[in-house]
Amino acid sequence: MSRKYKKMKNSQLYKGSLNTIIMKLLEENGKMYGYEITQKVKAITQGELNITEGALYPALHKLEAEGLLDVEIEKVDNRMRKYYKLTETGQKENVNRLSELEDFIRNMQSLVNPSPKLEF
Amino acid sequence: MSRKYKKMKNSQLYKGSLNTIIMKLLEENGKMYGYEITQKVKAITQGELNITEGALYPALHKLEAEGLLDVEIEKVDNRMRKYYKLTETGQKENVNRLSELEDFIRNMQSLVNPSPKLEF
DNA sequence: CTATTATGTATAAGAATCTTATGTATATTT
DNA sequence: AAATATACATAAGATTCTTATACATAATAG
């Protein structure tokens, strides 16, 4: 019964980007555990994106089930940690997803920031 | 019984961005009808993002119900068109959403393209 | 010292958004 | 004459997320 009310309400825009974020962070850091990922994301985005456990853990389990992540359990200070890292398949898939993300960002910028109409 | 198979499977990344896209296009073009929006988006993204009717029409109806869009029916060539435009509230809300989108893009770039670690 | 907060994982119920599949109808092109 | 393009609409199911719990230990605050 800890877990104080944390009203986060991330922008809907982040919906669908969690898997890509997880995989990119794992690529970058080698291995990470769930709680560490939430803290890292919060730090990088200066508190703007707060990944909830209810979203994170199912996502990690799914990526593992799909063979994109490997898990390795450690016990630190008597507390359990599940370290995740990309499998080889995961590394290949990560390349695709980052490429998709670049396309996505480029397309969103085209939509929102159209090249100005030329005046004659 | 037309409707040829159109397998689109947009990247999950676009999930959550439809409302923002709609409102931005309406701000830019004054008024648009549904089908026009799908074609415009396809053109701008060079075919990479294909908005489905099953997503678009419910989204338009919801934005209208929320008071962000106004609708105006016209008949062109004996075919119905429902033109949508931003209400005043919608214009204000659009500013917020575009600002959220900028933050989102910035954050995603930070996550994916971190500033290189300095070496000493 | 005891209550809260931080660290750490997990799942279930429900909301929100989207894909896929239809349905209806007219205009245009093949 | 048939297929495609234009134009709207909704329902079923999938996916992803929020919110609310649950359990457990370590560290900090009052």
TrEMBL record, chains A, B:
Location of the Transcription regulator PadR N-terminal domain: 22-93
InterPro entries, per the entry: Metal_resp_DNA-bind_regulator (IPR052509), Tscrpt_reg_PadR_N (IPR005149), WH-like_DNA-bd_sf (IPR036388), WH_DNA-bd_sf (IPR036390)
Protein name according to UniProt: DNA-binding PadR family transcriptional regulator
Organism: Flavobacterium limicola
A Pfam family per the record: PadR
Keyword annotations of the record: DNA-binding
Keyword Secreted: no
An annotated Gene Ontology molecular function: DNA binding
Keyword DNA-binding among UniProt keywords: yes
